[in-house]
Amino acid sequence: MSKYDIGLVGLAVMGQNLVLNMNDHGFVVAVYNRTVSKVDEFLAHEANGTQVIGAHSIEELAGLLKRPRRVMLMVKAGKPVDDFIKLIAPLLQPGDIIIDGGNSYFADTMRRTEELESRGLLFIGAGVSGGEEGARRGPSIMPGGSPAAWPHVKPIFQAIAAKVADGSPCCEWVGPNGAGHFVKMVHNGIEYGDMQLIAEAYYIMANALGMDADELHETFGRWNQGDLDSYLIDITTQIFARKDPETGKPIVDVILDTAGQKGTGKWTSQVALDLGIAIPTITEAVFARCISAVKAERVAASKILTGPDAKYTGDRQQFIDAIRDALYASKICSYAQGYALLREAAKEYNWDLKFGDIALMWRGGCIIRARFLDRIKEAFDEDPNLANLLLAPYFREQVNACQSNWRKVISTASELGIPVPAFSSALAYFDSYRRGRLSANLIQAQRDFFGAHTYERVDKEGVYHTEWLSE
Fold it and tell me: What's the pLDDT tens digit per position in 434-463?
């Protein structure tokens, strides 16, 4: 008799850790991997002594599972997901569930949901955040897809998810078709922004103030006791304390300054362009990784191009405090941009996204988990129709309190020749959003001049065109 609660395909580290997490919470799991020897290795080592059972074929896996069958794919996004769906779907019966727990593009999840539902099957696209440790001890899980599948998956996902102080799981149903993977994509975009902003704060202190790793360790540790308290600030503090065993130097100083990307940050920017939503800080974080990648060109250019390269000569502690304020204000703007994108996506795709619940799901387990997210939950609890986080009383007050220091840091960095693209774009976003009139009237005049694209007026309704060459 079939007795296994869920099947999992893909035994890379994330898949293995999720299986062990499920086992810890009393669920019996069957596993399969395309390289079948990996199954036996996992059972002999990491899963030794657990209730986990191995399958040596997709057919065997399907035969081991309780109905409705639940099969979770932890494989590389893109074609591998489709390939496994083609293999396993014919073995399933109406009402059975396929779950994609990888970093899939949300539009692919929308397509897969529609295709599988047309065959009587159910599909969930679940964003899983928290890395290897989160998968093992409690990730943030963002499921979306076929609503009828959720009651059958909810007990497992909410059991293995991270829990916050009041015991709430960092997992709740997000919405239909691609909603879960869209929310995960925006999470990753915000993660890009957070990481770049933290890196810029470090870069200013290292270059303008000459702070060494020990001083940076102390400073970030202090910041982590206040409003900036977060997973990323915490690990940054730890990074500055680590020494390279070969050279004895701080490990951060021997790491090559080129950053890679897996695509989710880029997807966030591309979708924002498609939906017409400004997310400049997230996008600048993606571009910063792009320019970091042309290391050889930058080294060559550094010998040819000139600019200021001075140190800050004012009050040292005051400037460190100002950098902290600039980081916090920029972080607020980055999250405001991410939530603006979620808001527009909810309209475009007819998703009833619960923005406060999304903040709750991000409070534990995931990479962007932070004290700050409680404030976002409170803001949307107070006003579910909030147009922009910057308009919420708490965030408005915080940005106003940080604003003078924020501007000082960016202007000083510019004077010293230190690039701070994410800081700068966040301030430009704030200044643009707070102005009732921008420069786009001139752009509309230019478009009408060379292309007769027409324009609207401020003083009366209608669409107008000027014959610019008639006089």
Answer: 999 999 999 999 999 999 999 999 999 999
38 is catalytic: no
Radius of gyration of the chain measured on its C-alpha atoms: 25
pLDDT tens readout for residues 216-226: 999 999 999 99
| Catalytic hit among 38, 172, 184, 377 | 184
| Candidates 172, 191, 200, 284; catalytic one | 191
Q: State the Cα–Cα distance between residues 425 and 422, nearest whole angstrom.
A: 5
Q: Which residue has the higher pLDDT, 218 or 164?
A: 218
What is the rounded CA–CA span in Å between residue 281 and residue 293? 19
**Cα dihedral 67, 71, 72, 75 in deg (nearest 10):** 180
Tokens of 20: 């062990």
* Phi/psi at 126 (5° precision): -115, 115
On whether the CB atoms of residues 22 and 141 are closer than 8 A, the answer is: no
The residues near 323 (Cβ < 8 Å, ≥ 6 apart) are: 201, 204, 205, 405, 409
Reply yes or no on whether the pLDDT at 1 is more than 70: no
Q: What is the pTM of this model?
A: 0.94
Where residue 364 falls among pLDDT bands split at 50, 70, 90? confident
Active site residue 114: no
